[in-house]
Design goal:
It is a single chain. This protein is α+β, with helices and mostly antiparallel strands. Strands 1-4-5-8 form a four-stranded mixed β-sheet. A four-stranded antiparallel β-sheet has the order 2-3-7-6, with no helix packed on it. Strand 9 and strand 10 form a beta hairpin. The longest helix is centred in the middle third of the chain and has 37 residues.
């Protein structure tokens, strides 16, 4: 067991940190305030391989372990959790297409997505199917050498500004549950696709979120990912990695907040002394750091389990997502508190980091659903000896 990063892993982290400082830090506050989707900056991330970190090499990706990808995502999220979170979603969709698409679709779209020249959205959630994803009703009917897709997707990151939609739709009977769901690679500009209004959100403002409507959208049959009925399995495999990714964004946001708070405690003076000299505030900083380090190690453990193909990888991914997103939000909130009134104004990044981190407790499966996943496994007879 080795907790130290290799030279190559450290180089990835250093590169990501330098990139984020150069390309995100000067603009993140403006992107948030203006609701600007920074495709140019994302494309520059793609030039470094950050848009296809763990996508297969034959799809143009780097095929890195998930553990290595966490290092990149964390460093970028310390500066801009919102933009980084979109990049993680794009990575997930790119990996899914690269892994399950037929060669013609993979060869056409994989390199463009992995390079950041084209961007992808992940389309699972519907207006009536959130936590109960297996209840989705968007329908795909076979029609000759095509499928006709009708329905709606909700809360789709990047919708209206991306080029490819990795979409789950029902090909089985209405009551077929998870077994009746299939996955598709749907070009975002096909006839019959319309986009709702851009949602006004608490955070994540550098990426658009919209409803997408599909009205008899004709998709070539070769755009099916995997086989009919495999879509839910594919979606859940994507979400295992997606949960680690969002956990990384929380760890990164918390690191950014902790760094700001530590500097503020030294710089700010009250009652004739620096804030750093007050023991109550020292204890608060100590607890923040402890929770952050624990969250980081939980995320890296889950990533290593996923890399190893461990039987219980999904359980560890759920644990990491639940713990890191709760801890990350707590650290951001406490950092804001340590800044007092300064933390509440936009001149400082604390309020943006906190707003961006809050949604991580909801998406990629709410933290309540993460507890359901963990509890189901923990009630099995061997769990106390295996889940450690």
């Amino acid at each position: 067991m080795d907790f130290e990063l290799s030279d190559e892993q450290q180089a990835f982290a250093d590169t990501a940190r330098q990139f984020a400082q150069a390309e995100f830090a000067p603009h993140a506050a403006r992107w948030d305030a203006d609701g600007h989707f920074p495709r140019e900056a994302i494309a520059k991330a793609g030039e470094l391989g950050f848009c296809g970190l763990y996508a297969p090499e034959n799809a143009g990706g780097l095929a890195l372990p998930r553990l290595d990808a966490t290092l990149v995502f964390e460093e970028m999220a310390a500066v801009d959790p919102s933009t980084t979170a979109f990049i993680t979603i794009h990575n997930m969709a790119t990996w899914m297409l690269g892994t399950w698409a037929r060669p013609a679709v993979r060869d056409e779209w994989g390199p463009q997505l992995a390079s950041g020249a084209k961007l992808a959205s992940y389309c699972l959630t519907e207006p009536g199917a959130g936590s109960d994803a297996a209840a989705l009703v968007t329908r795909a009917e076979r029609d000759g050498d095509s499928y006709l897709i009708s329905g709606s997707k909700a809360f789709i990151s990047g919708a209206g500004s991306t080029d490819m939609l990795v979409l789950m739709a029902r090909t089985g009977a209405a009551g077929s549950g998870a077994a009746g769901i299939s996955a598709f690679a749907v070009p975002a500009d096909l006839d019959g696709i319309t986009y709702g209004k851009k949602e006004e959100k608490m955070g994540w403002n550098s990426q658009p979120t919209r409803v997408i409507h599909f009205d008899n959208v004709r998709v070539p049959a070769q755009n099916l990912l995997g086989s009919e009925g495999e879509g839910f399995k594919i979606a859940m495999k994507g979400l295992d990695g997606g949960r680690i990714n969002i956990a990384c964004c929380s760890v990164g946001a918390a690191q950014g907040a902790l760094t700001q708070a530590q500097a503020h405690l030294h710089a700010r003076r009250q009652f004739g002394k620096s804030l750093a000299s007050f023991q109550a505030l020292q204890f608060k900083l100590a607890d923040m750091a402890t929770e952050l380090v624990a969250a980081r190690q939980m995320v890296r453990l889950a990533a290593s389990r996923l890399d190893a193909g461990a039987r219980d990888a999904s359980t560890y991914c759920a644990m990491a997502k639940r713990f890191a997103t709760d801890a990350g939000f707590m650290v951001c909130n406490e950092a804001l508190q340590l800044h007092g009134g300064y933390g509440y104004i936009r001149e400082y990044p604390l309020e943006r980091l906190m707003r961006d981190a809050r949604v991580h407790q909801i998406l990629e499966g709410t933290n309540e659903i993460m507890r359901v996943i963990i509890a189901r496994r923990m009630l099995e007879a061997d769990a106390p000896d295996v889940i450690r």
